[in-house]
Amino acid sequence: MAHSLAFARPRAPTVLVVEDEPLQRMSLMDLVEEAGYEVAEASDADQALIILESRPDIRIILADVDMPGSMDGLRLAALVRDRWPPIEIIVTSGRGVPQLTTIPARAMFLPKPLNEERVRDALHLFT
Questions:
Q1: What region, left, alpha or beta, does residue 83 occupy, with left being phi > 0 and alpha being psi -120 to 50 degrees?
Q2: How buried is residue 79: exposed, middle or buried, by Cβ count under 10 Å (0-12/13-18/19+)?
Q3: Beta-sheet pairing, 38-42 with 58-64
Q4: Using CA atoms, how far apart are residues 123 and 32, in angstroms rounded to an integer?
Q5: FRET label pair with 62: which of 10, 76, 112, 113, CA 20 to 30 Å apart?
């Protein structure tokens, strides 16, 4: 008797895009999806933490440094590194390069305006 095995395609890693500007967030989400990843979104660090606490499938966060709310993207990145060490981190900013001491270990910084190819390359480095 022959058995057919159905192989499920492995699920793409999920990237959490954390950006307070709606148009930039939508653009980043499109870029992440086009690069072959699942995407989740948050408009600030507080919302990102709620998502991270409920979504164990998040593998990478892509967060803007300059955000309103209780913490900026660098504080979010530090918290993520402490609470969810396996999650990879990419931080972005259009206001210059943060001091290296403020960027958590294994995190990557990309300056704005974001170059699509550099974003894709950064995501692929982490997967």
A1: alpha
A2: middle
A3: unpaired
A4: 8
A5: 10
User: What's the predicted TM-score (pTM) here?
Assistant: 0.89
Going by the DSSP 8-state scheme, the letter that residue 101 receives in this structure is G
Please give the single-letter amino acid code of residue 62.
Answer: L
Kindly report each contact of residues 104-108 with a partner whose C-beta sits within 8 Å and lies 24 or more positions away, as own/partner: 104/77, 104/78, 104/80, 105/81, 106/81, 107/77, 107/81
What pLDDT is stored for residue 52 in this prediction?
Answer: 98
| pLDDT one-digit tens code per residue, 81-102 | 999 999 999 999 988 777 777 8
**Could you write out the three-class secondary structure of 39-94?**
EEEECCHHHHHHHHHHCCCEEEEEEECCCCCCCCHHHHHHHHHHHCCCCEEEEEEC
Q: Which option is the CATH number for 14-115: 1.20.1250.20, 3.40.50.1980, 3.30.1780.10, 3.40.50.2300?
A: 3.40.50.2300
